[in-house]
Amino acid sequence: MSTTTAPAVPRSAVVSALVLVAGGLAVIFDSTIMSIALATLATDLDVPVSTIQWVTTAYLLALGVAIPIVGWAQARVGGKRLWMIALTIFLLASIACSLAWDAPSLITFRVIQGLGGGLMMPLMATLAIQQVPAGAGLGRLMAMVSLPAALGPILGPVLGGLILNWLDWHWIFWINVPFCLVGLALAWRFLPNDPPRGRPVLDWVGLVLVSPALVGILYGLSNVSQDGGFARTDVWLPLVAGLVLMAAFVYSQVRRPTGALVDVGLLRRRPVAASSAVLFLSGASLYGSMLLLPLYFQIVRGTEVLTAALLLIPQGVGALLSRTLAGRLTDSLGARTVAIAGFIVMGLATIPFALSGDTTNELWLALVLVVRGFGMGAVMIPVMSVAFVGLERDEVPHASIITRLAQ
To answer: Which of 107, 195, 225, 256 registers the highest number of CB atoms within 10 A of its CB?
Structure first.
């Protein structure tokens, strides 16, 4: 009887992953804190939830615009320098958000913050994976890189709840500052130098096509929840325009032999295509719940913001519990088995929320959230890992961009 031994992760990759996690926590905490703060922001800024929702929607739009240029920017300025630039943008934008005086100014500063976050998210995986020879130990490495995503749902809502319970909403953005400063110091000291690779020319045609394409798609989808659904002009018109521009973008990238903004040819490889498709679906489940669950606890059940934050902890605990196990099983059993099992668990644990009301037992919901978080963690790690198997070093940034855009 033989046993499968998972390959070891190089020490340099482990150090880089931990350094990237330190800075990445700022982005994840920001997202999870914002989800618990929406109801408070709507009240304090005297605007409806439909307006304050743009605090998150505008952030996502900026995220989508920034992500496609990461591959070019890394080649132009170097990975380490780009990471520090992005982290600095996020830091300054966080301070600006804390000084916002009304909803429009807050939304504007969130756009800048989204640009920094959009550069950081694909770069986290890229910089770590590029140090792993032949993809050895990818599952465990992605478990490290995904640590912020596991800790965020646990600590983010609690921090947000404590701040909003004792201080005003401006302080929720100051939480990012120490993480950014520590992340910058560690990156400067420990991240290996990744020098620029020549002076690649930016694919302006691709950028002009993909940026409005992503904005149109995301903007159209963000309006679906309003009366009229897909029949609304502000839904179908930007959505159709975005899809047309996206098709034109893909065509332009396929026709470009070198210097493409995003190497969409990687989608011909089954692992990259499958990973992107699954990340699209799991992303809807993950980020949809981050928005809906806090509003469910606060609006439907009438809980205080701190209570709602505490009620969200079990999902993060479940994700944290599955993180190491999922990484090891991905390296030994394969991504497909672990991801399918995780999806089944997450799907079954989502059904009770479709049947819940304002009097559903909170202990039952907490147990369901633990199971749902466990399944969520079991899905994300293998799916994010498999996309990078067998890729060359220069292909890793493009695969990271494609998967992050899908997510």
So the answer is: 107
